[in-house]
Amino acid sequence: MATGAKVFVIAEHRDGRLKKSTFELLGASSAAGNETHAILLGDGVAEMAKELGHYGAAKVHLVQNAALKHYTSEAYSKAIIPILQSGGAEVVLASHTPTGRDLMPRIAARMNVGLASDCTQLSFDGGKIKVRRPVYAGKATCEVEFLGSGPQMATVRANALGIPKPDTGKSAEVIQANADLGDLKTKVLDLAKGSSARPDVTEASIVISGGRAMKNAENFKILEEMADVLGAAVGASRAAVDAGFRPHRDQVGQTGKVVSPSLYIACGISGAIQHLAGMRTSKCIVAVNTDGEAPIFQVADYGVVSDLFTLVPLLKDEFKKVKDH
Ligand SMILES: Cc1cc2nc3c(=O)[nH]c(=O)nc-3n(C[C@H](O)[C@H](O)[C@H](O)COP(=O)(O)OP(=O)(O)OC[C@H]3O[C@@H](n4cnc5c(N)ncnc54)[C@H](O)[C@@H]3O)c2cc1C
Q1: Ligand 1 pocket test: which of 136, 270, 307 has the largest number of ligand atoms within 8 Å of its C-beta?
Q2: Of 3.40.50.1220, 3.40.50.1100, 3.50.40.10, 1.10.357.10, which CATH number belongs to 206-324?
Q3: pLDDT value at position 2?
Q4: Which one, of 188, 57, 35, 60, lies nearest residue 126 by Cα?
């Protein structure tokens, strides 16, 4: 019988909390019987090692340094590469978040190995992994295997693998690692946070998006009210963003963010191929559109031919009733 691989997961955290997408990677790796390591970088982050253990990390490589307090690809890759090399990493996984998208290509280039990005499926077979990733703006998917030697590296879309149940009885061995960061060329001086208190569209398990049909920025209030009931994020089509109804960080699609939530509700969005590229792997898609022929209905699990301004407030009230009971 094949034995598992040595899998290293790069842990991501923000504001003192680990990201759920990190738990997905740990859970998938440990459930497949791999020797699962987590790499945890930052300053004053030691407490988080415990939680990584609950989600399946057998070992946590902890690097604490003031220069790692805020993410930079330069400092993070300098800290991570020696851990991968000395630990004999066979597989390296990170979430396909802005950080993962920035960091992993740099590490792969430095280690002279390939990288499969934005994977939506991941399977392990002994020391090898196979991943599936969308191509042609999500019109097709391809299966990728890695050839040659060196770690197999992949970034995985958030919500693609599912979050495992934590086991508080499990703990990880914490290995304190020192990072020789040398002279760094980049330094984060300040972080300007966005004003929204809602979850980011890439991380939320429910996303409610509005399109051009919203007509103006104020009308998005009805989507925000429904989002507040459901604990959802609010997204937008490019037409809505270009019209100035929403900031670009909310744009879903080929030139925006790629989301894969449990539930995606598209309100007044036609379903152009570039929008579908960003949301078609959502587990359940609900579309609200006045045009019964709109292409969004071809990918929707549930479609409602209706004026969104009538339907959304009704839906919000129904969701609220269910929530209150
Ligand atoms: C290179 C490139 C990259 C792009 N990247 C992106 C991207 O990242 N994301 C993205 O979204 N788009 C992207 N686009 C744009 C894309 O092609 C579409 O133009 C855009 O998605 C359309 O947005 P929309 O569905 O909101 O608007 P429309 O296509 O105008 O659709 C509005 C829909 O609302 C319906 N409607 C109208 N009134 C109501 C009502 N009262 N109630 C319910 N329904 C109503 C209409 O029937 C219609 O279907 C890109 C285009 C290009 C060329």
Answers
A1: 270
A2: 3.40.50.1220
A3: 45
A4: 35
- Tell me the pLDDT band of 72, cut-offs 50, 70 and 90: very high
Pocket of ligand 1 (CB under 6 A): 211-213, 237-240, 251-256, 268-270, 272, 274-275, 278, 288-291, 294, 307-309
91: how many CB neighbours lie within 10 A of its CB?
A: 25
Helices (H), the chain: 20-31, 48-54, 73-87, 98-111, 220-230, 238-242, 273-276, 296-299, 308-324
Total-model pTM: 0.85
List pLDDT tens digits, range 238-247: 999 999 999 9
Q: Given this model, what pLDDT does residue 197 score?
A: 75
d(CA 325, CA 315): 16
